[in-house]
Design a protein that fits this description.
65% of the residues lie in helices and 0% in strands. Helix 5 crosses helix 6 and helix 7 packs antiparallel against helix 8.
Length: 205
């Protein structure tokens, strides 16, 4: 083996070893920061939850009179009705540590419950909307999806179906609203939603 090749091999090994050490150090630092935040969060006292931005369900605006004979629609309506008496929060993007630091460890169970209520809400709204869409009630379905959209849902189907609805109504310019909102979502599927919506707009040109 020539000295040049040997020297190159040593350099390569050194670079790889340095990168591994750097990555290990970054991982240790990240883990240390996490556990430091977790320790601090467990010491935060309970704070009031009275002034949070709770989601209110405008049940009277929903098309509850449509397809009442359908058992799945009735199930969706019943679920939404039961949620009207519950507290609902969209806490997407917050970790349990974030919530404990902000509102105290003693509130984590309640906050988790409120966030789960939100998940049930937006999933039920889209399930209901899909049934209406399949049966020709696009205008009524749009009411449900618009409301979910305004609560900052991250359900991709809501964005895609709303985009298709507005395009069918000759209001393709409305899709930009969806894109602007989706770009601000604090969730992992944000980029996929934005990319799909932008591609949908390209199809119209």
């Amino acid at each position: 083996m020539s000295l040049v090749i040997l020297a190159s091999l040593f350099v390569l090994i050194f670079i790889i070893a340095s990168n591994i050490r750097r990555q290990n150090n970054l991982k240790k630092q990240s883990e240390q920061e996490f556990w430091n935040r977790e320790r601090r969060s467990n010491q935060v006292r309970r704070k009031s939850l009275d002034n949070l931005d709770y989601i209110q369900i405008p049940l009277g605006d929903f098309p509850t009179h449509i397809m009442q004979e359908d058992p799945t629609v009735l199930e969706c309506i019943d679920t939404i009705m039961s949620l009207t008496s519950q507290k609902i929060l969209n806490l997407a993007g917050y970790t349990n540590t974030d919530l404990k630091l902000e509102y105290g460890t003693a509130n984590i169970t309640l906050l988790t419950e409120y966030d789960q209520n939100y998940t049930i809400l937006v999933r039920t709204l889209q399930k209901w909307a899909d049934i209406l869409l399949e049966n020709g009630y696009a205008d009524e379905a749009s009411i449900l999806m618009e409301y979910a959209f305004h609560t900052r849902t991250d359900i991709s189907r809501t964005y895609y179906a709303l985009a298709d609805y507005w395009i069918s109504k000759g209001e393709a310019f409305q899709v930009q609203r969806l894109i602007d909102a989706a770009e601000k979502l604090p969730t992992v599927n944000r980029n996929a939603i934005v990319r799909h919506l932008k591609d949908r707009c390209k199809d119209l040109t």
